[in-house]
Amino acid sequence: MDPVVVLVLGLCCLLLLSLWKQNSGRGKLPPGPTPFPIIGNILQIDVKDISRSLTKFSERYGPVFTVYLGMKPTVVLHGYEAVKEALVDLGEEFAGRGSVPILDKVNKGLGIIFSNAKRWKEMRRFSLMTLRNFGIGKRSIEDRVQEEPRCLVEELRKTNASPCDPTFILGCAPCNVICSIIFHNRFDYKDEDFLKLMEKLNKNARLLSSPWLQVCNNFPALMDYFPGIHTTFLKNSDYTKNFIMEKVKEHQKSLDVNSPRDFIDCFLIKMEQETHLEFTLESLVIAVSDLFGAGTETTSTTLRYSLLLLLKHPEVTAKVQEEIERVIGRHRSPCMQDRSCMPYMDAVVHEIQRYIDLLPYNLPHAVTRDIKFRNYFIPKSTNIITSLTSVLHDEKEFPNPKVFDPGHFLDESGNFKKSDYFVPFSAALARMELFLFLTSILQNFKLQSLVEPKDLDITAVVNGFVSVPPSFQLCFIPV
């Protein structure tokens, strides 16, 4: 048979299969835009700003709707009520890990973030317990975190008030906190191996939000048959894993099961004590890599965005520095106990996280069983997107949500005001770091922009998987 005829017949069969699969499940799933065969709704979505596209869909189809990212349906939950009902009221049913193909290629179903079912529960339980009980050695986690702001301040002094891009300095600080917990070791900010690791992590954070990788995550076959920046992402991930494996090997040689020094030691001891298949060298490397991703780039990106917003709003910066002067002064380092006496600084940190909307549509979830949700049927393993943007930028809870205003978290008396709608992508460690790092910087330096505040552009340059701020320079003027 003519090869062209075979190709046409094959494409026709694929087209019919796509139509059948899409139509067979659409009647039971929540409503949504009509998908094209094979490619789904990808042409109706702005891959440079997926969150905005989802908001537009919600205006037409309501708070629960279906989009097809390729041939597979994804149910989107938009707005506080829908997100809360799923993640809080029905937390067990929505606790599955959704698929991100480029990260699946890297993690191979292992680790803390993207493993599933029993494996994920085991790894998550062990990791949380180890980090929570970090009475390992003589210092608590806050002691470890408090050491790094002092190092960061000294490093910023070395800029001699000259213009600088803060990207790498602000990346090194949270990375060193993670390193002290994982490796029992921090790195000098000029260490070449450390800087190279930071470069790979920073590059991958930007690549993960690129339009090409958004497309590849919807059509994974592209990664196998076409060249593109996904190859750079995978190479950078391999570099990070090799870096971690070298540290693991060093730990194996010096391990004392009676005196664990850090996360890696605890994991290696667990490997010797247990026969769980979940605890292997490969899963250790992936788990540590996950901790790097969750604890380094997310915090450093937030810190970078924080400085940009403080430059844009000098009146906010002045009020924060007045509060720091009044509560802490100049002669001692900030500690977490100070936060309860600093409602304005607490509000600023919360507003930064709300405003920048770091992970606009969160990490993907999946339902762990067939479920009826708001009169719709969602089959087991269906991917779920929870729009954090729709919660953090809710107009009823946060008047003028597109405006940066610490008043969103202050009551009429100037006291800090909690909000159930504050659901940023961050852990307790990250919130501790943000408070201590920012307070330490503003305690020791005046921030000076190279351009007028009104001319600063604070719009995210990438708003895909992660919201990435534009590059900028500033001067750290000692006070």
From TrEMBL:
UniProt KW keywords: Endoplasmic reticulum, Heme, Iron, Membrane, Metal-binding, Microsome, Monooxygenase, Oxidoreductase, Signal
EC number: 1.14.14.1
Cross-referenced Pfam families: p450
GO biological process: organic acid metabolic process; xenobiotic metabolic process
Major localisation: endoplasmic reticulum
Keyword Repressor in annotation: no
Catalytic activity from the UniProt record: an organic molecule + reduced [NADPH--hemoprotein reductase] + O2 = an alcohol + oxidized [NADPH--hemoprotein reductase] + H2O + H(+)
Cofactor(s) listed: heme
GO molecular function (one): heme binding
Family: Belongs to the cytochrome P450 family.
Protein name according to UniProt: unspecific monooxygenase
Organism encoding this protein: Oryctolagus cuniculus (Rabbit)
Lineage: Eukaryota, Metazoa, Chordata, Craniata, Vertebrata
